[in-house]
Amino acid sequence: MDNEKELIDTFDRVVHQDFPNSQRVGCPGREALLEFAQYSTNTAIPQLLLHIRQCAPCFDELKELRKSRI
User: Fold this and answer.
1) Distance from chain centroid for Cα 12
2) By the 8 A CB rule, do 16 and 54 touch?
3) CA–CA–CA angle 69, 45, 36 (5° rounding)
4) What's the rounded mean pLDDT across residues 11-32?
5) Helix crossing, 2-18 with 56-68: angle to 10°?
6) Between vectors from CA 17 to CA 42 and to CA 29, what angle results, nearest 5°?
């Protein structure tokens, strides 16, 4: 569990440093992130994951959505 948390924390730092996207350019929107957080079976997942990996605001929003459903 510690290794997983360390990996996620490291990714969190990198995505915020390298991909801040403060203007939220190209973001898929809350509904797409919510659907992903709840079901993770959408066929658009590869494109969504690619975006989330390169967008700090979407990464943060997805983390919050996933936390709220736990």
Assistant:
1) 9
2) no
3) 15
4) 95
5) 140
6) 30
What mean pLDDT value characterizes the chain?
Answer: 88
Instruction: Work out whether the CA dihedral 39, 42, 14, 56 comes out positive or negative.
Output: negative
pTM equals 0.78
Contact 61, 27 (CB under 8 A): no
Tens digit of pLDDT for each residue in 23-53?
999 999 999 999 888 876 666 678 888 999 9
Which amino acid appears at position 13 of this protein?
A: R
Direct distance between the N- and C-terminal alpha carbons of the chain, in angstroms, rounded to an integer:
17
3-state class (DSSP) for residue 52: helix
CA dist 37 and 2 (Å) reads 22
